Amino acid sequence: MAGTRLPPLLEAVLSVGTDLELRTTLQHIVDSAAELTGARHAALDTVDPGRDGLTGICTPGAVPRCPETLRVPIRVQDEHFGDLHLAGKRHAAPFTAEDEQLLHVLATQAGIAIGNARLYEAARQRERWIEGAAAVTTALLTGESAADALMTVAERARILADAAAGVILQRTAEGGMEIVTASTYEDPGDIVGATIQPGSPVLEQLLGGEPVFIDDSATDPRMTTHVRHRFGPSMMLPLQADGRLIGTLALPRRRGDRPYSAVERLLACQFACQAAVALVLADAQHSRERLAVYEDRDRIARDLHDLVVQRLFATGMMLESTQRKGPGGDVRRTLARAVDELRSTVQEVRTAIFALQQPPADAPATFRGKVLRETAGAAALLGFQPSTRFTGPVDSRVPDQVAARLLTVLRRALATASRRSGVSRIEVTVDVTAGLPDGRDAVRLTARDDGDVEGGDVEDGGTGTTVTWQAPL
User: Fold this and answer.
1) Buried-most residue among 71, 114, 325, 407 (CB within 10 A)?
2) Angstrom distance (rounded) from CA 216 to CA 220
3) Is the pLDDT of residue 19 over 70?
4) What are the strands, taking DSSP E only, across 160-243?
5) How much is the average pLDDT of 273-296?
6) Which parts of 141-240 fold into alpha helices (H)?
7) pTM, whole model, 2 decimals?
8) SS3 content of the chain, % helix, strand, coil (to 5)
């Protein structure tokens, strides 16, 4: 035996340990077993295919479960990994005790090689998931919106897990969960918007921040979404950080795909934890950035008020004093126009200060803010910002119903002006100190433009159109 069979055995043992990729290692084992014993067919069946994501390994032309005439178990440490089957020895010869002995030696070495290959594969998987988590953290901290951040997490996780889809679910107001983001190889179709209704068996685990592992989404009674039939094995992982449940990351595979291994489940859970922390950090960073913007806007508003408005007001006072002292009528008229311009400028600066003090992305809650929103919206069509002035305490004196009617008239007047030729300036004035002929207090809206006249009232015989509307308070 030593003189004739040792070199082939050594060669077989060496070939088994030459590759660290698990599937390749198993194929070496099967091929070496067939060559050593002269078997026409060899196959290796694993006890737990889901652990390593493997199906049966066999020689070309063989089936995993060929008629066995010789079987040897393969153990990895204390675990029964699988069985090596041999059948159909060449020349119709029977397998011998020597063949079995060689196969036992090969199986022992195979157990060692499989253990090494598992360690190597686990290290490679861990490295990929760590790199993926780092990439997600970097992407989230570069200023993505909330929706883009969730898509980044879903897409990266789908790629790492070799899943058919990466899905983010978040809690609904009714107490269920809804798919808000989906990354798929194909068109996500109606995946986004699918809901898990309150009372679902899986919902308690998800809302409690527990991971859920599904062998087959299509047949598992816990799954209730209308898209479940498209998928097979799945992981549903909590996105939770500092006791805050941001949502659930679901990673379903196609029907018939291999189940997730224990290593994949562990790495995916770790990824979800790190992604949740990154989402919280990104949200905190965005909040700090928004706060910095608000603080900067407040500073600009204070500077405008303390420096610009006060100086303009002082200049107006000096001009009024000079106007009273001036001997000539032309000088007084010129000074009067300058005083009016300064007053108008003060009003516009105060309006700008008010606008700066509003949250930029929020809908205005005050009447003054709603008027400014209408004029700002018209600026996109006009190509310039209309001038807006307020007289009196507009926010406290205008009732909601009157405010709604005024905004409708203003919206119509701005739209009409945007279609008129020659318009380069629009002055909008809201005055709550006006009065009606019967003595009642009123709010008056005036919208004047300098465009070409196309009918309507014209003040002072000049160009332009003025729209006036008023209502009792």
Assistant:
1) 114
2) 6
3) no
4) 165-171, 177-184, 195-196, 212-214, 231-241
5) 72
6) 146-161, 203-207
7) 0.51
8) 50, 20, 25
